[in-house]
Amino acid sequence: MGKLKLTNGKMYIVTLQNGNTMEGELHDLKCVGNELYSLWIDMGSQLVYVPFSDTKDIKLK
């Protein structure tokens, strides 16, 4: 995955390791030290927790 500066409030398409994709507004990022640990994506009706280790690709919509 190339470098992408993730910004809260912007829309992203997240592709998971298993091939599933989700689309939504980035709500929050969690880090452990300097490493990205997880994302919270607002998919309209609910926030979805996404472990960063499960992501294959993240693209700005």
Output mean pLDDT.
92
Count of individual helical segments? 0
Form type: globular
Outline the biggest β-sheet.
Answer: 5 strands, antiparallel
Q: Report helical residue fraction.
A: under 10%
Radius of gyration: 11 Å
Give, in spatial order, the strands making up the sheet with the most strands: 4-3-2-1-5
How many angstroms does the end-to-end distance come to? Answer: 16 Å
Q: Could you tell me the strand content as a percent range?
A: over 45%
Question: Pairing-aware structural class of the strands and helices?
Answer: mainly beta
Order of helices and strands: EEEEE
- Tally of extended strands? 5
- Unreliable spans are none
List its salient traits.
61 residues; mainly beta; globular
Overall description:
This protein has strands spanning 11-16, 21-32, 35-42, 47-51, 55-60. Strands 4-3-2-1-5 form a five-stranded antiparallel sheet, with no helix packed on it. The radius of gyration is 11 Å and the shape is globular. It is 0% helix and 61% strand. It has 61 residues and is mainly beta. The mean pLDDT is 92.
